[in-house]
Specification:
The active site is at 76 (proton donor), 200 (proton acceptor). This protein is an alpha+beta fold. It contains four helices and 17 strands. The chain is globular, with a radius of gyration of 18 Å.
């Protein structure tokens, strides 16, 4: 059975998404294979994931996120920022928005420069290992600090960690982080995409939290990714606990179109 889909393509620091307006339920029947096809960079539209804007009685909207492999994914921070910008384009026009995603409720707001600020879930547990950190910022993230992030084979080393005995079953995203003059530079291997992406919102959030000074306080950490500039603001409340975490950055409409599948 063929289906016409009206879609929008958004990107946030190079992390790109196919977005559809599913508030009337017309795209709820899309299969895993169809979603994977839409995200395919050679045979489809091409994206790191697909999102659906849906109704929710208690919130301004609901976020449904699928990885590029077509399976429903965990929270995507850059996706949340792009879906917020899309919601505004679709007429949900408020200065501050509240939405529900797979990991719970989120708040979002707009800056004058077009940036979207997305509030992330509090983090109350961080595993601190030998040369690494492991924490969940809506998705599970392994964070490793390196001296030269440009030299890292992100695909190879990321895969090794993602598929090692510890993480193979549920998978983990893997972030390589270099401290630079003004903040950090982050490169991420993403599970579900199974490759390096230009930017990963929950990943840069995890990296910024682990890069913060040890003293409790309010922090603002600028982050560079292959896809551009982001900013994480948060309050450190303890050695392994953080609250009022905001992921801030651009979210841009690339194009819209129709595709028949």
């Amino acid at each position: 059975m063929s289906m016409n889909i009206h879609f929008y393509k958004y990107q946030g620091t190079g992390n790109d998404f196919v977005i559809v307006d599913n508030r009337n339920g017309e795209y709820s029947q899309l299969t895993t294979a169809q979603i994977a096809h839409l995200c395919d960079r050679r045979f489809g539209i091409g994206a790191d994931g697909l999102m659906m804007l849906e109704n929710d009685p208690a919130y301004d909207f609901r976020m449904k996120y699928y990885n590029a492999d077509g399976r429903e994914g965990s929270m995507c921070g850059n996706g949340g920022r792009c879906l917020t910008a899309f919601a505004r384009q679709m007429g949900i026009d408020k200065k501050d928005l509240r939405f529900i995603a797979v990991d719970g409720p989120h708040e979002a707001s707009f800056r004058d420069n077009g940036w979207v600020n997305l509030k992330m879930q509090d983090v109350n547990t961080v595993e601190i290992g030998n040369m690494y950190f492991y924490l969940n910022t809506g998705s599970p993230h392994f964070v490793k600090f390196v001296s030269d992030v440009q030299e890292v084979d992100v695909y190879q080393q990321g895969r090794e960690i993602r598929y090692n005995e510890r993480f193979a079953a549920e998978g983990t995203n893997v972030n390589f982080v270099q401290e630079v003059d003004n903040g950090i530079f982050v490169r991420t291997y993403e599970r579900g995409v199974e490759d390096e992406t230009y930017s990963c919102g929950t990943g840069v959030t995890a990296a910024a939290l682990t890069a913060a000074p040890a003293e409790p306080g309010e922090y603002n950490i600028p982050v560079e990714t292959l896809g551009g500039h982001l900013e994480i603001t948060f309050t450190r409340t303890g050695e392994r606990s953080f609250s009022d975490i905001w992921l801030c950055g651009p979210a841009t409409l690339v194009f819209e179109g129709n595709i028949k599948i």
